[in-house]
Design goal:
The complex is a heterodimer of chains A (217) and B (234). With 217 residues, chain A is an alpha/beta fold. Chain A folds into two domains: 5-135, Response regulator (Rossmann fold, 3-Layer(aba) Sandwich); 154-211, Winged helix-like DNA-binding domain superfamily/Winged helix DNA-binding domain (Arc Repressor Mutant, subunit A), CATH 1.10.10.10. Chain A is built from eleven helices and five strands, in the order E-H-E-H-E-H-E-H-E-H-H-H-H-H-H-H. Chain A has helices at 14-26, 38-48, 65-71, 88-96, 105-108, 112-120, 128-153, 157-167, 172-179, 183-197, 202-211, and strands spanning 5-10, 29-35, 52-56, 78-83, 101-104. A five-stranded parallel β-sheet of chain A has the order 2-1-3-4-5, with helices on both faces. In chain A, helix 2 runs parallel beside helix 3, helix 4 (88-96) crosses helix 7 (128-153) and helix 8 crosses helix 10 (183-197). Chain A is elongated and about 70 Å long. The model of chain A has no long low-confidence stretch (mean pLDDT 91). Chain B is an alpha/beta fold. Chain B has two domains: 17-158, Rossmann fold; 165-224, Winged helix-like DNA-binding domain superfamily/Winged helix DNA-binding domain (Arc Repressor Mutant, subunit A). Chain B contains ten helices and six strands. A six-stranded parallel β-sheet of chain B has the order 2-1-3-4-5-6, sandwiched between helices. In chain B, helix 9 (196-210) crosses helix 10. Classes of the chains: A alpha/beta (217), B alpha/beta (234). The A-B interface holds A 92, 95-99, 124, 131-132, 134-136, 138-139, 141-142, 145-146, 148-150, 152-154, 213 and B 109, 112-118, 140-143, 148-149, 151-152, 154-156, 158-159, 161-162, 165-166, 168-171, 173.
Chain lengths: 217, 234
Amino acid sequence: MADTVRAVVAAAHRTVRAVIELACRELDVTVVDTAETAAAATAACRSNAPDLLVLDLDLPDADGFRVLTDLDDDRPGAVLVLADRADGDLVLRALRLGARGYVTKSDGLRELPATIRRVLAGERVMTPALEREAMGALGRMARRAREGADVEAGLTPRERQVLEFLGGGMTIGQIASRLGISPRTVETHVAKLYRKLGVRTRVQAISRAATLGLVDL
Amino acid sequence: MTKTTTDPDGRRIGFRQGVVVVEPFAVVRAGLVRIIEASHELQVVASAASAEEAMAIIDRFPGKRLVILVAMGLPGEQGPYGLIRALRERSPQHVILGMGANADPNTVSRALFTGADGFVDKNVEVDEFLTAIADSGEEHVVIAGPAADSVGSIAQGIERRRSATFRLTRREREVLEIASEGLTAREIADRLGVRERTVTTHLARIYGKLGVGNRLAALRLAARSGLVSIGEDE
């Protein structure tokens, strides 16, 4: 029995789990555990060390990605992600977190045995449309990273501080006393920030800064 | 307004996307020009052997949107990344594609982070190469070649570069990149057209921000976080 492939199935809905288990049985893949929540899935992978994880992103306690980030390097070698929709950013995130396959539940369940077989063989499995979406998401990500780095490079240390405090929800007055400068000076910094960010209001500034990765919200 | 008709692949019929080939090796350049010209969808408007030539060429096509292939083996003061950055800043309407030879994810992430819109590898079939270039002209982000399997690693590489550049100014990043080529402070100063004293000041500030004490440690940290690549492909 040394060569049996062992799998953990993580999906909230019983029908989805049943379809996955059926596909695994067709391939002589042993389902060692099933989970209905992200927490249970993480625990199941930790205790079973499976070769394959079939992971539905739609879980009640957290999205499926949480399982992958929690497991980190301990995640199974083969991960197949199931999702409700074809979303470039989701696909990109799945790939970044080490998934080999990404299928939508509407289209992908039909071909599940073949998909699982390919994922186990080390192939990257997704439709050409999904791959294009992922590339688009990668391009957007690269552009945001680049713009963020450029904008940030143009900020003075003081401006960076003020931006961080703005992102934290502090008022001009609070920022002034925190930094030990006058509110007037803070307002000057804020005006310069708006210009460098290409925005006109505080909400826009925070939103743009968050998009560019300059502040964490 | 003319009605554009499209073929089954969605390409505009009768339209040939203009391409500029920037490739240092004459034989490779000639080969690339030939296969691109043989495509019905593409047309080589110019080719260049160096970054300087490429920048001069771009000025000749103010209105058009071109696809510019930048060979990652480009030598010279700017190198491929300097050219990508300069093209992005000067003419943002063009599509810039990094062109590698068995490029690794790190090269691709650096090219994308610097400003490339996509990446094609010479290690693909000719058809795939040409389709990728045509697709990029239609505003799709393309990554063709070995790196396409490493989209996840490329994304990670971009994130690493982004967080590593977190504290450095653009000039400091520039200095660090050039320093990674092994040049002395004097040589870096010559390359950037500034005084040697200015470079040593930048380096001191870089060491402070990265929390290291010397150039070697700075470069090691920078390489680990993907900020610079030591020993590029080609």
